Amino acid sequence: MKLVELPLLKTKRLTIKLLEPRDAHLMVAFRITNKIHLREWEPERSEEFYTEKFWLIQSKMTTRQFQNGVSVCLVIMDVKASRILGVCNYTNIVRGTFQACQLGYSIDHAHEGQGIMFEALQAANKYIFDNIKLHRIMAHYIPRNKRSGELLRRLGFVIEGRAESFMKINGMWEEHILTSLINRE
Ligand SMILES: CC(C)(COP(=O)(O)OP(=O)(O)OC[C@H]1O[C@@H](n2cnc3c(N)ncnc32)[C@H](O)[C@@H]1OP(=O)(O)O)[C@@H](O)C(=O)NCCC(=O)NCCS
């Protein structure tokens, strides 16, 4: 296994890093608190998803997948890293001629509308381009998810198309708007 330095990003209001085993209980708190808030925008979740056991395993997998260059799944925390405020996951990393990944994200209900996800994604996207050396970050949103569309627009993502029946969200195959941010450097 090739050892790569683990991400640790700092912004004015945030610490952004991989989920560590010692933070598994914070992830459970984030997931339970936001169960209803996130239901409309995420896949259906099993009961296990809300347990510490699940997130302990997940934290180990996240590190392994990072080391293997498969994904960069980040937790967005307050400056002191005492609470999880959200997540941003860069998955399905493809190399070769593509050099691209897919981005998914969500913020705690109580922290929505404060520019926190924008601040986090500005830093994380830069990390993905500068350190992971990808050329394209792809993000998709359901047309009625206006907050998500607006966030991506402000971050510089460009709409590239529309795909019918694209992802199974909350038990339904949903149409999505397809967007990308390209590394121009
Ligand atoms: C999509 C999602 C992450 C967007 O979060 P968000 O908080 O609206 O996004 P931003 O971080 O860009 O914040 C924008 C808001 O913060 C405000 N803001 C910007 N900078 C700010 C600052 N420094 N201080 C305070 N507020 C600020 C903006 O005016 C805007 O407010 P408004 O929504 O009242 O117009 C969030 O709605 C969410 O998690 N939704 C559920 C999951 C989901 O949909 N995921 C994406 C699936 S595609």
UniProtKB/TrEMBL annotation:
Stretches assigned to coiled coil: none
GO cellular component terms, semicolon-separated: cytoplasm
Keywords, sorted A to Z: Acyltransferase, Transferase
Domain N-acetyltransferase as annotated: residue spans: 14-179
Origin: domain of life: Bacteria
Pfam families in UniProt: Acetyltransf_3
InterPro entries assigned to the protein according to its UniProt record, in alphabetical order: Acyl_CoA_acyltransferase, GNAT_dom, N-acetyltransferase
GO MF term (any one): protein-N-terminal-alanine acetyltransferase activity
Descriptive protein name: GNAT family N-acetyltransferase
Gene source species: OM182 bacterium
